[in-house]
Amino acid sequence: MTALVATIVVVSSTLLVGVWGVRHARTTSTFLVANRSVHPVMNAFAVCGEYLSAGSYLGLAGLVVIFGVDILWLPVGWTAGYVFLLLFVAAPLRRFGAYTIPEFAEGRLGSRRLRVVSACFVLVISVMYLLPQMKGAGVVLQQLVGAPYWVGVFLIGTVVAIGLSTGGMRSITFIQAFQFVLIAVGVVVPLALLGWGSDEALVPTATDQPPAFDQATQVTYPRDVVLSLDQPTTVIVVDASGTGEALEIGPGRFEVTGGTELRWSAGTPVPHVSDLEPTAEDEWAVPFLGSDLAGGHPLYFAFSALVASALGTMGLPHVLVRFYTNPDGNTARRTTVWVLALLGPYYSLIPLYSLFARQATPEVLSTGDTEVVSLVVTDTLLSGGFGEAATAVIAAGAVAAMLSTSAGLLISVAGALSHDFTTGGVPQFRRAAWAGAAVAMLLGLIAQPFDISIMVSWAFAVAASSFCPLLILGIWWSGLTERGALAAMLVGGSSATLAILWAMVSGPQSGWAEALTSAPAAWSVPLAVGVAVIVSRLDPMKVDDVHQTMAVMHLPDHRLAVEG
Q1: What share of the chain is helix, strand, coil (3-state, %, to 5)?
Q2: Fewest Cβ atoms closer than 10 Å to its Cβ: which of 107, 373, 413, 484?
Q3: Is 0.90 topped by the overall pTM?
Q4: Does any domain span residue 76?
């Protein structure tokens, strides 16, 4: 009940701030870039609010529970991406002065068709990133109050569309900054309560066996699952009276109907959902030993994850547009420094939930609830006021994360539809926000089978393969041409997108086939950069006034003010 109240408070406050923003939102500049007047600290909080998505807040801990510390290459890359933004992108991009990334592409290279292609990739990346937010909303409300999956999807989509269509970027900035505070509290407070109220020892055991129940454990299965057992075992099927009958099962697959309660004996290896293969304990805490990652190639996974997450950060449209809201290039850099200071502690704390869950609540591997391990852990290890408080703040943080990230992504979608494909101004922006939300909600209904963090990593891979080459080469190499940029985006972005779609629809694979399709950034990014350089070198049509454009991006702000 407390968690439900916290959820209602977060949703209500989001709607109130959005409605409040109506009186300040009248122009395109207000809706898209908040009049370029956001303070660096406020902007940093807002960046973190929209960047720390359901994948960071929920999915990351769940993936670490399954695969171990190899997954931590993802947050390393997510944080390192802001170092690259600080060094290479933030200030020049802000000095250029466009409203959107497609507008930057057209202004830098003088190509309308490049702007249209860029806008298409904005839509692809934003929708791919919206899907895990929709799924997170569905599974969180399902876990908290037993609501059907679709209720959470439509609730988050509707609330974000209302806030965005009424107040635009100006009101969303305040909402996202406030929601980052909720996200941070949702991580820190439950961990403090777990440390205070739990006796669990946080020391991984060194055994080559999969996780096992350390005591007799009764598990309720909320939905139909197919379990995989490596050895025969005896389980008790519990009936309504609390008793039950023993059943011999395994090895192999065992189907469990939703609503069934099973009691597992102490020492029984935890049966896992059939499409998961959790890492053994001796490999779980050691890098490069997670045998099921990327088709059994954990070293390749680590490299590709770093490329996708670090370089993909530079290509995320909803992150990049934030730097247009700063007054100038110097404040854009200061925003990035603040973001780094805020992200580091956050990502350092998230894996602690995984450590608690791996040892204290291994049944999440059996039910498939790995994406809500923080809620499961606090429900299991804390009782009374501690438990209610922890669940409430986690729920508030989860809802805030999904609302904040969804709002940033929908701004990118609405900006592309209203400013890059057409020039309809504020009315068109509002209609585009609702259209984008509708598409995200419909696609969110079919995203349930896919892991939240995996979907996020796919969005990063496409962003790294399309926008990263455009930005880095467009900002730092005067030799980039329209054809070179267009070829790079089409080859890099399309190859990454097709590889990911193949991984989604082709079913389970193994070996290098799975590695190259499920984690394509390691080859798609170099391919895009190589294509851009080669095509630009061979292209006889060079960009006019390129040196003047480069000067605008690279001269210090005070020089630009004097010379302007």
Answers
A1: 70, 5, 20
A2: 107
A3: no
A4: yes
Mark whether 346 and 421 lie in a shared domain: yes
Q: What order of strands is seen across the sheet that includes strand 217-220?
A: 217-220, 261-264, 233-238, 244-249
Contact partners, residue 250, CB within 8 Å, separation at least 6? 229, 230, 231, 232, 233, 271
The 10s digit of each residue's pLDDT in 501-529 is 887 777 667 778 888 888 899 999 999 99
Q: Which candidate, 183, 173, 156, places its Cα nearest to that of 44?
A: 173
Give me the helix-helix angle, 494-505 and 521-538, nearest 10°. 150
| Number of structural domains in the chain | 2
Taking CA atoms, 381 is separated from 105, 353, 390, in Å, by: 52, 12, 11
Phi, psi (5° rounding) for residue 271? -70, 140
Helices 73-84/60-67 angle, 10° precision: 130
Residue 531's pLDDT is: 96
Q: What is the pLDDT of residues 406-423, one digit of tens each?
A: 888 888 888 788 777 776
Structure tokens at 413: 């979608």
- Asked whether the CA dihedral 463, 48, 321, 97 is positive or negative, the reply is negative
Beta partners for 255? 226
Residue 552: name the closest of 33, 108, 115, 39 by CA. 108
d(CA 355, CA 79): 21
Write out the two tokens for 335.
Answer: 């925003």
User: What's the alpha-carbon Rg for the chain, to the nearest Å?
Assistant: 24
Domain that holds residue 261: 217-269
